[in-house]
Amino acid sequence: MTSRVRRTVLPGGLRVITEQMAGVRSASIGVWVGVGSRDETPTLHGTSHFLEHLLFKGTRERSALDISVALDEVGGEFNAFTAKEYTCFHARVLDDDLPLAVDVLGDMITSSLITAADVDAEREVILDEIAMHDDDPDDVVHNLFAAQAWGDSPLGRPIAGSEESIKALTRDQVVRFHRRHYRPATMVVAVAGNVDHASVVRQVRTAFGRNGFLDRDESPVPPRRGGRSRRARPGTATVTKPFEQVNLVLGVGGPSRRDDRRFALGVLNTALGGGTSSRLFQEVREVRGLAYSIYSFASHHADAGLVGVAVGCLPDRVDDVLAVVRAELARVAAEGITAVELERGIGQLRGGLVLGLEDSGARMSRLGKAELIHDELLSIDEVLARVEAVTLEEVRELAAELFTRPEVLAVVGP
Predict the structure, then answer these.
(1) Catalytic (active-site) positions
(2) C-alpha distances in angstroms, 127 versus 39, 130, 131, 165, 367?
(3) Residue 2: what pLDDT?
(4) Is the pTM of this model over 0.85?
């Protein structure tokens, strides 16, 4: 699939980056904002996520219903999410309906009313969402794992906030947070699909020009949060919950997203617990029947990372599961992976990357993250070349470094 990437910086520092994809009739747009839960003080815990909700509640031109109907009536997909280091508002529509999506998003970002009534109403919705997450064993154990690894810091706290912080937030605090962080210079508008760059730039300039939003003398804010890498805090955290299973996450500190070893880690992760042919799945589920689901993962931040294994099992199998997982981690630390696993891991990563990027939404996400947090956009061929260049020795060295570190363990269950 041929494509072309172009970039324009509008007044105020708003970046517009597009990728024209041949042979598709869809277009995906994302407004990526360089603010997330890492930017919150304890008093403001959960504000980024709260604000994400509030921007759907209405503007001077559109009510909350109008915003929903606008994309529904053209069959579009429309949503948003908040992460530790950014927030994204995104839509996927037919190419002919892209101007509508640009206008709705521009209206929401620049002109949301954030009324006191909306703050109070959405507060209850978010409290309900927090309660929902507290009933999900996977969410609870991963939040506990992050809290153990990063302590009482913005990186260690749940993105949605706590019941206490959300109840205490005021409209004035949310409005000040919005004014401080939602500026053109901290934003990227990424668009991919059957699009024309010049047309998209004109549409964005108009839609985001409301209320003098672009009338600022600022340059784009480059990716920040650099400095020394953070070390994960080892230890064990346990929470008792009336679940049927015990859920475990066992892991160690890992590379940040700026570390070039992330490509080797991708191969290692695939071999260790990235699918049904992986070591952990075969040993824990297929051979021993100790658990239904087990997988490994890697999470990356600007200055920190985690590598871990997540598994759910019956309470009387916890010790056996932990013993097998620890043994496999020790074995891969001592011996690395095999040539067959290397080849399979590279193949899985190549296939997943290429197949995933046939979708305009995935291409849009790649553009937005590259511009906002990575400060580089590797071509697909460059990424594939980096993956294909991973060697057995690189994987062995990385495994030996990672899996001899002090472990972080989170346990949730009866």
Answers:
(1) 52
(2) 21, 5, 6, 10, 33
(3) 53
(4) yes
